[in-house]
Protein 1
Amino acid sequence: MRILVAEDDAVLADAVQRSLRQSGHAVDWVQNGAQAEDAVQVERFDLLILDLGLPKLHGLEVLRKLRARGSSLPVLILTAADSVEQRVKGLDLGADDYMAKPFSLQELEARVRALTRRGLGTASTIIKHGPLTFDATGRVAYINDQMIELSARELSLLEVLLQRAGRLVSKDQLVERLCEWGEEVSNNAIEVYIHRLRKKIEKGPIRIATVRGLGYCLEKIT
């Protein structure tokens, strides 16, 4: 999942990025509201973690502009522990959840998982497709209940394909979902990751089909 963190506290932002990256997410960071506003207009993210007390443009204004454009991007707001009024305003403006500072990184990860499930329209952290099972919490995958050894990048790639099982996913979409700013990943690299993943999961009635010139599709073989 691609996450944007908008937080002006560099120490806190670094801790959040490290934690979320360890969970397999691609994470980008901006330090003020103007940068956040620009980023969500030009890039596609799966979640915005938004501090309300941002310089240049307040977090509530970033949120207001986002919803005014009709964006349904999930937003988790971060607020000071005593700012009940701001939390209420944030939720009324369309935030999906909030956390008061200071907070536990473990709880943050759990809330991120919950927002991901909500965005996918499911209550479970388990994604299944035929004999293939992916546990988003434990970051493990199974074929017919046998665990598959996958790298962090392969797990993230599999998660994207599973979330769109039966539908075409282009190389550009994979790069967009898996890579952070400044990370150079070419279409050729995506082909290498797909090749490695194929060798590990195509042991049963399932395959990653290539649609030449368009992308990939995770399919069950009947």
Note: The CA atoms of residues 84 and 167 lie 42 Å apart.
Protein 2
Amino acid sequence: MTDLVVIFRTHSDIEAQIVRGLLEAHGVMSVMSSDVPHSIFPLSVDGLGDVRIAVHPGEAEEAVRIIAGHRTELKNGKVVRLRDEFEALQQAIGYRFRDRGLLEHAMTHTSRANEDASGGVADNESMEFLGDALLGFVIADMLFRDFPAFDEGEKSKTKAALVSTATLARQAERLRLGDHLLLGRGEEKTGGRRKQALLADGYEALLAAIYLDGGVEHARAVIVREFGGLIDDVRRGGVSKQDYKSTLQELLQSRELPLPEYRLVGTLGPDHRKRFEIEVVVRGERLASATGPSKKEAELEAARMALRELSHSDA
């Protein structure tokens, strides 16, 4: 049997799979191997997690050419990885990972891990668990410090609203986190990138990854930035996202204005990833508009934006 030739090495098993898929798309069959045993954590980046891709000697030159064609070389001679699909996400959260494998792990849904025959890809379920605990603690600490007048019931209700699946999914949508999820083919086809549960879980896993990469202070700083606007909303009188519509209605009534109308402006995207655009109107004047994965979610977000606009106009 002819010995295979190693033509690519990386510290990321996910990047190795991307390269392998690239080669197969060009008709070059390859074999992926690693000396690292399966673990619930991503492969190490300290040299112990070396993942190799090998091909038949007769296809080695072509494989190297294909890979080189998908790299980018900067003026300083540094070669950028084949697909830095998380760059926009790191910019959005204001945190850059030292161990990029942690970010890949956080974005890996169980459907992607289940489709990997090698068993070397771990899903983000354990990180979701950690992120949920981390987020709950930081939010509780923020509420304790910022709302000393709230009784236990008010704090609990507010915390539940802030860490709810709906709220976390909206936070994830704002970061366009769905675009970065690593999904299996089946989940991809059924619109997994827009499913609230997947977005919320991915968001929690992302926070856990930041904690594992940079420590609790970096994680706390990101959470404080991420939830600062929602905490401000609580200060303006709403403890739950579900209360935005009623809060807006009460505010308008206190000003002797008519009730708001919610109008469907249109829809965006294909049927399996449809988003609804809603505008909130008072006396024929549009106060705000927003989009969401459902009409209800879009209405709630439009109400929140309208409350924010009204508060700014009062300032």
Note: The first helix runs from residue 13 to 25.
